[in-house]
Amino acid sequence: IFRATKRPGGIMKKNSRLILALDVESRDKANSIASETEGIFDAIKVGYPLMLSEGLSVIKELSNIAPVIADLKIADIPNTNHLICNRLFSAGAQGVIAHAFTGRDSLEACVDVAKRWSGDVYAVTEMSHPGALEFMAPVAERMVMLALVAGASGIVAPATRPERIRALRRAAGGLTIISPGVGAQGGSLRDALEAGADYAIVGRSVYESANPRAAAEALLDLI
Ligand code: O7M
């Protein structure tokens, strides 16, 4: 608990409250969308699609435009988690995303590495898709408690179910809540933020738009 209260909410700078999920599969496309929307997003989330296509070097490139959160939803034993986090932070990530279901020791391994790099760890509690109701939702509050105890900066909670953001916010205290599921998955930006999310994560509704900057600005207008 002490560690969690020592660095509540992490180091991401809250401005637009929007995080771009850049799930495109080419470096050029990633760079062009990130440049076009420069100044709008508080962070860019890069995951498997782009990292498997183009390698870890995209992290450093994109971090010239906005802080990068590396989303590999890390879920391994503590030693492997430690190695993965070191790779991601040394590649220039400012934050990483790790699953909470693997338990305290695995999540703490991520937090230990993040602290060395002055970076953030966001723990996945309940995901935004319908399947998350099968195994994750029933134990999501416990995973939030784990995120607090392990010293994570924040949690991931579903914009597709604002009532669950509200419940997880009650458990999460001052942890940062980042929330995917706005737009393409049917979630409402306003509802997610009103329910207690600090940031909304938005992907397809921006990067698949004919005019990503206009799409991002339209989201800003809603906030
Ligand atoms: O706006 P979308 O639906 O195109 O993209 C949403 C992004 O958020 C995409 O990168 C997903 O992998 C991610 N995501 C979810 O959609 N649901 C979750 O529960 C968790 C994530 C996520 O980012 O976890 C950190």
Explain briefly what this protein structure is.
The protein is of the alpha/beta class and 223 residues long. The protein is 46% helix and 17% strand.
Main sheet properties: 8 strands, parallel, barrel
Tell me the series of helices and strands, N- to C-terminal: HEHEHHEHEHEHHEHEHEHH
How much β-strand is present in the residues? 15-25%
Amount of helix: 40-55%
Global mean pLDDT: 95
The number of helices is: 12
Termini Cα gap = 32 Å
Q: Which ligands occur here?
A: 6-(methoxycarbonyl)uridine 5'-(dihydrogen phosphate)
pLDDT < 50 runs, ≥5 residues: 1-8
Class inferred from helices and paired strands: alpha/beta
Strand order of the largest sheet: 1-2-3-4-5-6-7-8
How many strand units? 8
* Radius of gyration from the alpha-carbon trace, in angstroms: 16 Å
Shape: globular
Write a structural description.
The protein has helices at 2-6, 27-36, 48-54, 57-63, 78-90, 104-116, 132-135, 140-150, 162-172, 189-195, 204-207, 212-222; strands at 18-21, 43-47, 68-74, 95-99, 120-124, 154-156, 176-180, 199-202. Strand 4 (95-99), helix 6 (104-116) and strand 5 (120-124) form a beta-alpha-beta unit. The protein has 223 residues and is α/β, with parallel strands linked by helices. The protein contains twelve helices and eight strands. Its EC number is 4.1.1.23. Pathway: Pyrimidine metabolism; UMP biosynthesis via de novo pathway; UMP from orotate: step 2/2. Substrate binds at residues 23, 45, 71-80, 128, 180-190, 203-204. Residues 17-219 form the Orotidine 5'-phosphate decarboxylase domain.
